[in-house]
Specification:
The protein is α+β, with helices and mostly antiparallel strands. Helices cover 34% and strands 26% of the residues. Strands 1, 2, 3, 4, 5, 6, 7 and 8 form an eight-stranded mixed β-sheet that branches. The longest helix has 14 residues.
C-alpha cells in the first residue's frame, strides 16, 4: 500500500525546520534545552507542563507541535486513528544519568526525574497533549533503521484502521539534540511525498 508524508520536521542544536524551510536558528548559541525553550515561547504554546518535561520529551513535544499545526490533528478532539512510531539511540540515558545523581549518599531520589526514565514517555507526553489513542511503538537502535521502521509502519497501516502517524527519530543526550519526525498519512494530496525508504533517506 502507498502512504504519504504530509510534513516533516528537523530539530538540531542549531535549528528547527519544517519541510526543509528554516524557521528557527540558534544564533545566540544557546544550550540545546534553552534553544528548545526559546522555540516554545516564540510559538506561544500554552502548555505549562512543558517546563517539567525532560529534554528528550521537550524535543519530541516541539517536533509534534510544529507538525500538527494547521492540520486536522491539531485540536481538542480525541484521535483514535493517529499512531506513533519513534526510535532513537540513547533511549532515556540523559535522564537516567540525571536521576542517578539524585540518589546521592543518603538515597533521596527525585520522583519528578524518575517519571522520565523510559524513552517512550515522550510519546505519552505527545499523546496527552493531542489526545492520541492510536498504535504506538518505540524502538532503540544504534542508527535510524529506516528499512525496519518503514516495514513496521506499512504493516500497521495495512492491518489497522490507522489514518496517520508520527514516524521518525528523536534523540537527546548530553546537550546533543537530534530529531527527524514525519507526519505520515493514508491519503494523498498535492505536493505530498510518497512514504518509502528512498524518500526517508533523502529527507
Amino acid at each position: 500500500m502507498k502512504l504519504f508524508i504530509h510534513k516533516y520536521c528537523h530539530i538540531t542544536n542549531s535549528s528547527l525546520s519544517i519541510n526543509g524551510k528554516l524557521l528557527y536558528q540558534n544564533t545566540e548559541e544557546l544550550a540545546s534545552n534553552d534553544f528548545l525553550t526559546t522555540i516554545y515561547r516564540e510559538e506561544k504554546v500554552a502548555y505549562p507542563k512543558f517546563f517539567k518535561m525532560d529534554n528528550l520529551s521537550k524535543t519530541g513535544f516541539l517536533a509534534a507541535e510544529m507538525l500538527f499545526k494547521e492540520t486536522s490533528i491539531y485540536g481538542e478532539q480525541p484521535k483514535l486513528k493517529t499512531g506513533m512510531f519513534i526510535s532513537n539511540k540513547s533511549a532515556s540515558l540523559d535522564t537516567d544519568e540525571a536521576y542517578q545523581k539524585t540518589l546521592g549518599e543518603e538515597y533521596f531520589p527525585s520522583p519528578a526525574v524518575f517519571v522520565y526514565t523510559l524513552p517512550n514517555i515522550l510519546m505519552g507526553e505527545i499523546a496527552i497533549k493531542h489526545k492520541l489513542f492510536g498504535e504506538n511503538t518505540f524502538f532503540v537502535s544504534e542508527l535510524f533503521d529506516y528499512d525496519s521502521i518503514y516495514d513496521y509502519v506499512c504493516e500497521t497501516f495495512s492491518e489497522t484502521n490507522m489514518e496517520n502517524a508520527l514516524v521518525g527519530w528523536i534523540d537527546y543526550y548530553h546537550n546533543d539534540c537530534a530529531a527527524f519526525l514525519m507526519l505520515v498519512e493514508r491519503e494523498n494530496k498535492e505536493n505530498w511525498i510518497e512514504f518509502n525508504t528512498k524518500e526517508i533517506v533523502k529527507l
